[in-house]
Amino acid sequence: MTLELSGRNLKKGFNRRVIFERISFSLKPRQTLLITGPNGSGKSTLIKIISGVLTPTDGQVVAQRSESTAVPQMHSIIGLVSPYLQMYDEFSPRENLQFALSVRNMKSSFHSVSPLLEKLQLKGRLDDPVKTFSSGMKQRVKYAFALIHQPPILILDEPMANLDADGIELVKELMHEQLHEGLLVVATNDITDVDRHDQQVTLGI
Amino acid sequence: MGYDRNIAKASLWQASVAIFLKDWKSELRTRYAISALVMFVVTTISIILFALGSEGASVSALSGMLWVAVFFAAMSGLSRTFVAEEERGTSMTLQLVASPTAVLFGKLMFNLVLVVCLNAFVVLLYSAFISEFVIRTYSIFVVTVLLGSIGFAAAATIIAAIIARANTKGTLYPVLAFPILLPLLLTVINGTRLATEGAFFEEALGEFNILVSYIVAVVAVSYILFDYIWKD
Predict the structure, then answer these.
(1) How far does A107 lie from chain B, in Å, by closest CA?
(2) To bridge A19 with a disulfide, which of A42, A198, B2, B97 should be the other Cys (CB 3.0-4.6 Å)?
């Protein structure tokens, strides 16, 4: 199955202030969209719109399977990692991830994500409360949360935030794996975060 | 990757139950809502007992005071379900894993369980400490409390969703809830009075019709509006 993602003439404003307008893109499988721009230019706002958690003032984001006219629900096809996304602190990574699976009716497949947890170096702390984690470890839990359902669209906002050198290498590997079949959307101030990109949206203030 | 297999379409019921279980586990661990509800019930009933002293009160007044205790306790605890998500910054996390309808019904289930436990606790304390409060028609009382609980939970859930993003949540919740809950309160007070007066079950059918209509209206409006409230 292939999935395409497009944004058509997107505009977002808060009250009278227009954050951005006339933003369009169209992504096919194995392609990367890079979103760049200075602080306050609306990168995170655009990421939220693409993720389906914020409604654009104008335009629309459409994710469509090439062999079907049905539009899938965004929450079933995307994984998001961002600094403003929070895990349930009172729960352990295992409980957070089990919730992410059970709410999608995938409870039985927890054992199948063992390689991902090993790769993210979370296996040793699967049962510790997330509130006891460092910011770097929390970022790793967010990656597990975003990837546990193997989403066709992976959306990353400041993907390297809070990560050490090993973590950065790991994220680059995850981004590479995502592009075997899926799509990647990355918003960052540092263009070296991505090895290559197929489309770029540059936002200005 | 086998996306066809993995893009599982969770049924609304399964997703709602998963959200309910998540909230329940979180509540058992943090005890925010339960502590607030218990403290308010104990405080309110203590004040009622001090106010009554050795003087008796009419059955109508006692029926009203029972629901005053339920109302204020509910106002202290039922908003937690959405306010906690906002305060922890996990609203977006929830938006990313579940449809708005699943979130609404999951939170509604959680509030319903809380309200049923709250009502059982209030009735227990009330019956134990206020000897004048005697139920004569149990069938009317049970149906009134049950339908009242569902109505309370339904209204409290959608109001909590509305106020969760406001700056003055604590003040706004009872202010917004009172006019919306007023028809429900008047009806359950009347139903409780009929139960304490020993009325026949048929005499309370009018009250039950109003309660069922109220529940259907609130749930339907919540279902229609929740997408807009939850997303932006």
Answers:
(1) 10
(2) A42
